[in-house]
Amino acid sequence: MTSEAEVLRNIIQRRRSVMPPVYNDKKIDRTTLEVILDSANYAPTHKLTQPWHFIVFTGESLKELGREIARLYKLHTSPEKFSERKMIDMEQKPARSAAVIAIVMESHPHLLPEWEEIASTATAVENMWLMATALGIGSYWSTPGIINHLQPFLSLSDNQKCIGLFYMGYTDVELPASKREDISTKVQWRE
Q1: Cβ–Cβ contacts within 10 Å for residue 44, how many?
Q2: % of the chain surpassing 70 pLDDT
Q3: Cα separation of 76 and 88, whole Å?
């Protein structure tokens, strides 16, 4: 295996879901965020629709996002399922992050089925995740129950939907190795 392939394999195997409670206070500068976002732009895209769009929250806007998530949780959660503690955690999670990126998928129903646009956007997120890992930044893709209610807050058009929030931050925590089943349990060879 070439050294370039070995580096890529190592980055893929080190990628983890790293949550805001273990982020430190170090900020992610705009240039670094732009490098991460640019890596998303090279995801596979059928018919070059490039359906991924991103809304980046940093600084004070992280608190605004947290307040909106908490408000939507309270508004759309039944009394028997509502948890004050969960609402507070949801509000504070963005502020514990250096950046949060709203992951937006734009559909092109006249060209492609929606699942292809979702898959393409997901690969764009994986590209960001791998680049963040390579840069020593922890991150994870969150899909809170209120995700479908964020459209007005994010000013999305009718053919756009938010499919997650990508939390990011530096961490001082040593992350454990991933535990995965051997790939041979998931592959059939037909020769």
Answers
A1: 10
A2: 100
A3: 15
* Structural domain count of the chain: 1
Confidence tier at 177 by pLDDT (50, 70, 90) = confident
Average pLDDT over residues 88-108: 97
Q: Which two tokens stand for residue 111?
A: 């060209």
Residues 52, 106: Cα–Cα separation, whole Å: 6
Q: Taking Cα atoms as reference points, which of 101, 174, 104 lies closest to residue 140?
A: 101
Q: Which residue has the tokens 């053919």?
A: 159
Domain enclosing residue 24, as ranges: 19-171
DSSP 80: T
Token digits of residue 88:
């507070």
Q: What is the pLDDT of residue 161?
A: 97
| Mean pLDDT value across residues 133-157 | 97
Evaluate whether residue 2 is within a structural domain. no
DSSP H or E stretch at residue 170: strand 160-170
Q: Do the domain assignments include residue 189?
A: no
Q: How far is CA 180 from the centre of its chain?
A: 21
CB contact burial 117-138 (16+ within 10 A = b; e otherwise): bebbbbbbbbbbbbbbbbbebb
